[in-house]
Design goal:
α1 crosses α2 and α6 runs parallel beside α7. α7 links the parallel β1 and β2. The chain is mainly alpha-helical. The protein is built from eight helices and three strands. The protein starts with a helix and ends with a helix.
């Protein structure tokens, strides 16, 4: 089943978290998800705007990281879990918006990208080429790839949960 597959690929996710993500990304339309989340926020009197800067990086955070020598790259605008299932136009909108926002903040042009949850397809790669991205990173867990680094847009990388798992942290 999909839950077992995700649990083997993402051991840090609880079963409930996997069910939430699968429901959000495969069963609900975007507007349905937003209505449900807004209803839950209202019911719990949760103001997500108040904690926004604690959850997401601010422009000053990004500038600081860049100043310290880090390369800041694209990861889509809204982080759709199943980016590859979206139309070319929706994927293009995701990366174009992310590209514009980062280039308005950073000193150096954005030249790298990664894929939300490792989800991408040939259309995604074409979008990155059009944006003059030089390198793209994908999750190393993709067992279907015969080569680890398939192309300069598909360089394998370990995500934080994989590293923590290997180091027995958390």
């Amino acid at each position: 089943s999909k839950i077992y597959e995700w649990k083997s690929n993402y051991p840090r996710y609880s079963k409930e978290d996997i069910i939430f993500r699968l429901t959000r990304d495969f069963f609900l339309k975007n507007n349905e998800y937003k209505v449900i989340m807004n209803s839950l926020f209202k019911k719990k009197k949760f103001n997500h705007f108040k904690i926004k800067n604690k959850l997401f990086m601010t422009p000053s955070n990004l500038k600081y990281l860049e100043k310290k020598g880090n390369l800041i790259g694209l990861h889509s605008h809204s982080h759709p879990t199943n980016l590859a299932s979206q139309t070319f136009e929706k994927q293009k909108k995701e990366y174009n918006l992310n590209y514009k926002k980062l280039n308005n903040i950073l000193q150096n042009p954005v030249i790298c990208a990664s894929f939300p949850n490792g989800s991408y397809n040939k259309q995604t790669l074409n979008i990155l080429k059009r944006l003059n991205i030089k390198v793209g990173f994908r999750q190393i867990i993709d067992k279907n790839k015969k080569k680890i680094n398939v192309s300069n847009f598909e360089v394998a990388r370990a995500n934080h949960s994989m590293i923590c798992e290997r180091l027995k942290i958390l």
